[in-house]
Design brief:
alpha+beta, Jelly Rolls
Length: 131
């Protein structure tokens, strides 16, 4: 089923660390709220491409050890196999929407905090099985 919503509003209103808002046959749309001082955490997707759109806040992208500043309006494309992390270096939430291709999380999954995401072994296994 198609998905039609205002993704900027959806992202701005989201207060969860990660919320899967749509999963299609070949891609997935997720909104994120990374709190001040927080981070996504170092990760690497072997078979998934991830495109991140930053709506507000400031931070740092680390891709294969190379650091770059990020802020509202920036986009980062993480190709399969790239080790990456995104860190909020500002004083306000880093608001992000991201597209995974293929899906990397269980459909409709919500992680209120990063700790919730880190403890979700079922979702982690789903992501590692993505091809």
């Amino acid at each position: 089923m198609p998905y039609i919503k205002n993704i900027i509003k959806e992202t701005e209103e989201n207060t969860n660390f990660r919320k899967v808002v749509f999963t299609g046959g070949r891609s997935q749309l997720v909104v994120m709220d990374i709190p001040a001082g927080g981070e996504i955490g170092r990760e690497q997707h072997e078979h998934v491409e991830q495109t991140l759109f930053f709506l507000s806040g400031t931070g740092k992208a680390i891709l294969n050890g190379v650091e770059a500043d990020i802020s509202a309006g920036d986009v980062v494309v993480v190709t399969p196999g790239t080790e990456h992390n995104f860190i909020n270096t500002g004083n306000e939430p880093l608001k992000v929407y991201t597209i995974y291709a293929p899906a990397n999380h269980i459909d409709a999954r919500i992680h209120v905090t990063k700790a919730d995401a880190d403890a979700d072994d079922e979702d982690e296994a789903f992501g590692h099985a993505a091809v």
